[in-house]
Design goal:
single chain; alpha+beta; Butyryl-CoA Dehydrogenase, subunit A, domain 3; five-stranded antiparallel β-sheet; two-stranded parallel ribbon
């Protein structure tokens, strides 16, 4: 018989697992990993209303994507174009970034699988006498290690020609040059920290769903069990 068991700790772990997976996925897909040095406005970049030049803009560069400004015939129209600069995996700017993409992709796939499974832990708490919470926590720990490897290797690619074109000639491995780190890099770090928090918290979720109070509710014949 299926027992639906919901506790504060198990629900919090499920929500955190979903948030972590989406956080890492959004960061990976973003082009805002590096914020390039300011590009001066051209002599044509004039604000028609004020007659003054528009402020310089900052192009951004991600692991496989980038954002830059494109000009149109109309002086008042300036669009920011974002998209992948690499049509395939081999065109990613640096071998280190290729490794970063692999490690992050593996970690994110594991996190997405755990997030999917976590939704069903309300109904199924064990498989083959193994706690799903413990297995998922172990997988989250493994995913966190993949994410750490990817984040460590990423700065080693700052010396590639693509990064130098954005960050200036002084950019090199682990040296930003004229660039600064964008929100996507910090988001990936935050998501990695949360990944390990989820891995640790999964043990608390397992304890909450197998407590004496839960067992008493089951013995009383209840199928829906909600506990604080």
């Amino acid at each position: 018989m299926c027992h639906v068991i919901v506790t504060c700790r198990s629900m919090l772990w499920t929500l955190l697992s979903i948030v972590v997976a989406f956080t890492e996925l959004i960061a990976f897909m973003s082009a805002d990993w590096l914020i390039g040095k300011a590009k001066p406005s051209s002599s044509e970049d004039v604000d028609n209303r004020t007659g003054g030049s528009q402020e310089p803009y900052h192009p951004t560069l991600g692991i496989y994507g980038r954002c830059t400004r494109i000009s149109h015939m109309q002086l008042s129209r300036r669009d920011t174009l974002c998209g992948p600069y690499a049509e395939n995996f081999n065109e990613i700017a640096s071998g280190f970034w290729q490794a970063t993409a692999i490690f992050l992709a593996v970690g994110i796939m594991i996190l997405c699988a755990v997030a999917f499974v976590s939704v069903f832990t309300m109904c199924v708490q064990s498989i083959m006498k193994k706690s799903i919470f413990n297995v998922c926590g172990l997988l989250q720990g493994i995913a966190g290690l993949f994410l750490i490897l990817g984040l460590i290797l990423y700065p080693a690619g700052w010396g590639c020609q693509k990064a130098i074109s954005y960050c200036g000639p002084y950019a090199s491995a682990y040296k930003l040059g004229d660039c600064s780190l964008g929100w996507a890099f910090y988001t990936a770090i935050g998501g990695t920290i949360l990944t390990f928090i989820c891995a640790v918290f999964s043990a608390q979720a397992e304890i909450a769903t197998s407590s004496d109070k839960v067992q008493e509710e089951i013995e009383e014949g209840k199928n829906l069990i909600c506990l604080l």
